[in-house]
């Protein structure tokens, strides 16, 4: 009996069944986790196509009775989409490329050189990572106002040139972690060939940092694109508003219309139903759509970049 049991566990059929069982458990866990992130997107898509009659109809859950692009046309026009899209693109890409340039240089310096005050400066970098940005907005607002930079893209782009901006300290740490993993023989060979520090960085080390560059670019792009806090401080004219700001205005208009309808109807239950939030769903989808398209093309390289940059630590 024991011989048969041992023979079964060593057989090919057992190994195949164990492999299938492992795959089933693996994909079950992945699907369960992915549903947590996919559900909000599916909900936004479903609600953005629904009409008022679908919202008040208890029989309609996910699929509307009739597809309509009315909410998308409304949100597209009210948000002044293409103009706001260009504002978001300029501020986002400008800040992202500025942080790539500055944070790569700073991270390389901390990773490969031991200069006087190395630990103190690195501690200051970590300190800027820990300080909430809300605590320094008043001095920054006054400073940028004295420079006449308000209602321009400069407050979003220029700090990135100095390794600051949104999550600048984190990007410095990402580059520092990556450059620490490269062999020192590369720089020694460059010095033998007569290359200086700047040439070594630009022609040898920076081209090897492609994964880290991609990770920082995507992180910076997503965070700057979705940011509303800083643009609300520096962009006070609607002409300079980005897409998230326009989406906030669209949402405010929807809430105002609901409250107005409620007051006119004497506070009835039906009038208090937020029937205009479908327009907000359509506006939210066209706001995040560029990021979804960007990630769909870069996801493979992004995953490889995360693995090679060692964000999780050694």
Features:
about 325 residues; mainly alpha; single chain
Mean pLDDT: 82
Number of strands: 0
How helical, in percent, are the residues? over 70%
Number of helices in the DSSP assignment: 15
Quick recap of the structure?
It is built from 15 helices and no strands. It has 314 residues and is mostly helical.
Task: Tell me about this structure.
There is one protein chain. The chain has 314 residues and is an all-alpha fold. It is built from 15 helices and no strands. Helix 2 packs antiparallel against helix 15 and helix 5 crosses helix 9. Residues 267-273 have low confidence and may be disordered.
Note the topology.
Elements: H1 2-9, H2 12-48, H3 52-55, H4 70-78, H5 81-112, H6 118-130, H7 137-146, H8 154-157, H9 168-180, H10 185-192, H11 197-208, H12 210-226, H13 229-234, H14 243-264, H15 277-309
């Amino acid at each position: 009996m024991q011989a048969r049991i041992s023979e079964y566990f060593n057989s090919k059929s057992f190994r195949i069944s164990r492999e299938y069982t492992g795959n089933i458990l693996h994909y079950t866990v992945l699907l369960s986790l992915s549903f947590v992130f996919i559900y909000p997107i599916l909900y936004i898509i479903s609600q953005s196509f629904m009409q008022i009659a679908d919202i008040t109809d208890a029989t309609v859950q996910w699929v509307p009775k009739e597809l309509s692009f009315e909410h998308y046309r409304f949100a597209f026009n009210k948000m002044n989409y293409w103009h706001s899209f260009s504002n978001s693109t300029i501020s986002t890409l400008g800040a992202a490329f500025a942080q790539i340039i500055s944070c790569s240089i700073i991270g390389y310096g901390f990773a490969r050189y031991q200069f006087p005050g190395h630990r103190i400066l690195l501690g200051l970098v970590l300190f800027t990572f820990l300080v909430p940005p809300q605590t320094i907005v008043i001095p920054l607002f006054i400073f940028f106002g004295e420079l006449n930079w308000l209602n321009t893209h400069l407050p979003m782009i220029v700090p990135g040139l100095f390794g600051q901006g949104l999550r600048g300290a984190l990007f410095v740490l990402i580059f520092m972690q990556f450059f620490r993993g490269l062999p020192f023989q590369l720089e020694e060979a460059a010095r033998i060939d007569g290359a200086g520090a700047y040439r070594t960085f630009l022609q040898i080390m920076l081209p090897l940092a492609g994964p880290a560059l991609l990770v920082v670019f995507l992180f910076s792009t997503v965070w700057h694109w979705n940011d509303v806090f800083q643009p609300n401080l520096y962009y006070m004219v609607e002409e300079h508003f980005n897409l998230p700001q326009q989406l906030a205005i669209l949402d405010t208009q929807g809430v105002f219309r609901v409250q107005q309808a409620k007051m006119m109807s004497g506070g009835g239950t039906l009038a208090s139903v937020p029937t205009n939030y479908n327009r907000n769903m359509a506006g939210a989808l066209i706001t995040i759509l560029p990021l979804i398209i960007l990630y769909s093309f870069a996801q493979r390289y992004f995953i490889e970049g995360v693995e090679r940059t060692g964000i999780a630590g050694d």
